[in-house]
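Hey,

Quick one before I head out. I ran the complex with zinc ion overnight. Inputs first:
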Amino acid sequence: MHPRQWIEIRPAGIYCTPGDFYIDPTSAVPRALITHGHADHARAGHGAVMATAETLAIMASRYGSEFAGSRQIATYGEELSHNRVGIRFAPAGHILGSAQIKLSWEDGSIVFSGDYKRRRDPTCPPFEVMSADVFVTEATFGLPVFVHPPIEQEIAKLLTSFRQFPERCHLVGVYSLGKAQRVICHLREAGFDAPIYLHGALVKLCQLYEEFGVALGPLIAVADQDRAALAGCIVLCPPSALHDRWASRLPDPVTALASGWMRIRARAKQQAVELPLIISDHADWPELTQTLSDVGAPEIWVTHGREEALVHVAQRMQLRASALSLLNDDEEDD
Ligand SMILES: [Zn+2]
Ligand SMILES: [Zn+2]
């Protein structure tokens, strides 16, 4: 049966009728499948939750161990089912534990991408192409202007500034889940082996990544009294801390921000970012359009972001395409 007949959009989000469960619901529901740990996808208070072991650990770390009534681990590639709906989680290449979810019911199938990217990411396995009748794609950066440069180039920009201004502190705004750990891994790959200093809000998730085998090298949590001594150091903090009182005691900081939105100069200016780093954990425009043709699904539903342009491109590719209007909360990550 075609997924149009058994997938509904309800107030809490995407609902599978025969399975009686939601995917990434925006409010507490009896049963949820969760693609990944970002706050706009993974919420506390559901009855039963199915997700990867990494995502369940992230949710427990953020919401406490009682975040759901019960939980079930989905391993990448494992064939699971609920109420005779086939369920398969596959890597999405977005952050640690992130998954696409494929559902199969009678002779129909649908893949929900969750958030994804196609670039190499040392913190998680790469996006796996799965065929289906319908592919539901995110579109956070769904406009042709969004072309993310190679991350190596952006990390080199940071390291060049670091060498040029050894008397200043380099303060880099990064989202605490995913972006922080990926930036750290790429600094290590670029040969930066000195300690990296962390704002307290980043410490727990970095530990969790290390527990799951992602090596991050020497990290030091910044204690209040130490801030003045951080000249010549790289310090990571959440974007919200870049200009707050926490940052004001750092020695002459070069303010950097790692985000896909840094492609838009006005945004960097508006946020008073001296060193914008265009680093995103979402697919850019070429990756989005490439993925439509790689997946090869005859029907595309576009959600999470700038939907119109991608719908238009899909239609030009002779695909049936429409925008899924969900209540989009602000992305936690970009
Ligand atoms: Zn995400
Ligand atoms: Zn998201």
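Residues 258 and 277 are 5 Å apart (CA to CA).

Talk tomorrow,
K.
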